[in-house]
Amino acid sequence: QTTPRAAPGFSEPQHRKVPVNDLLSEEHINKRQKLFNPTKSVTIPKGFTQSHSETVYFTTVDGEGNACSMINSNYMGFGTGIVPDNCGFTLQNRGYNFSLEKDHPNCVVPNKRPYHTIIPGLVTKNDEFEWTFGVMGGFMQPQGHVQVLCNMIDFEMEPQTALDELRFCISDENSGLEGTNHSVVYVEEGMSTEVINSLSKKGHNVVVVRGDDRSLFGRGQIIKSIQTTQNQTQNQNQNQ
User: What is the helix (H) or strand (E) element at residue 184, kind and residue range?
Assistant: First the structure.
């Protein structure tokens, strides 16, 4: 319920006050929860931008626990298609996600950054580094991040298993794969028939994505602290 709200109202903080604390408050979350119906699909409001990625994520950690989580994107294949003289790269095209509507919070103006999908992640616990992570895939990123977080935290998966786990992507009619013109729940090839049929019965338009098209769900990287791994192993041994 949060993702489709983002595009219509978000802007660079210097140009519009984004009520982050209100959005993360228990009161707001409880209101949004009431819009969720586990027995049937709900309409996704328009505003979810078309998905283009061409993003590279990398992360590194040194022996002292200093971590870097870095993501970069030229957007839409070759970005603007403009190559500076005597340079071997194209200029990025992130400005594509500006709005041209005059009164829109994300309207293009000088000295302003556009709404974008650049989301490098880093997890801490008690102000100590736990792990770095990132998922690519355009506007799949926030959904992919949540799914990886759930795999690591709720299901206690190891990094590679968390990344390999099948994913899904919720999209509105303006951001689907070619040939679709309605709200879609994309699921990765390998998702059980039982799950797919259950979603369909609840009114969701489910599309199974196969082969190279699975890049829709984004690739990812994770580096987990050795100390975190050791602590988890000790806790598991104690529980046994």
Answer: strand 184-188
